[in-house]
Amino acid sequence: MQILVDRGKCQSYGNCVVAEPRVFDLDEDGIVKVLVEAPSEELREQVKFAVLDCPARALQLEG
């Protein structure tokens, strides 16, 4: 599983960080950054939730 980020769409809501802070964070400009680009299977469900919970649709999963 690979996380794809469209930084231009990110609106700094932070839902992804709340859903899975081990994988997502916000940078100094408030834009999402991925801490773990290929999360383990153990984190899969929370990462999927974080992607679906993004109101700006700035996140996607591949693989």
User: How are the strands of the biggest sheet laid out side by side?
Assistant: 1-4
| Total beta-strand segments | 4
> Which CATH architecture?
2-Layer Sandwich
Q: Give helix % range.
A: 10-25%
N-to-C series of helices and strands:
EHEEHE
How widely separated are the two ends? Answer: 5 Å
Q: Report the uncertain regions.
A: none
3D structure, described in words:
This protein is α+β, with helices and mostly antiparallel strands. It has a single domain (2-62), classed as Alpha-Beta Plaits. The chain has 2 helices and 4 strands, in the order βαββαβ. The radius of gyration is 10 Å and the shape is globular. The model has no long low-confidence stretch (mean pLDDT 95). Its cofactor is [3Fe-4S] cluster. InterPro entries: Fe-S_cluster_ET. GO terms for molecular function: 3 iron, 4 sulfur cluster binding; metal ion binding.
Write a compact overview of the structure shown.
With 63 residues, this protein is of the alpha+beta class.
List keywords for this structure.
two-stranded antiparallel ribbon; 63 residues; globular; alpha+beta; Alpha-Beta Plaits; iron; metal-binding; Fe-S_cluster_ET
Question: What is the topology?
Answer:
Elements (H helix, E strand, L loop, with lengths): L1 E4 L9 H5 L4 E3 L5 E3 L9 H9 L6 E4 L1
Antiparallel strand pairs: 1-4, 2-3
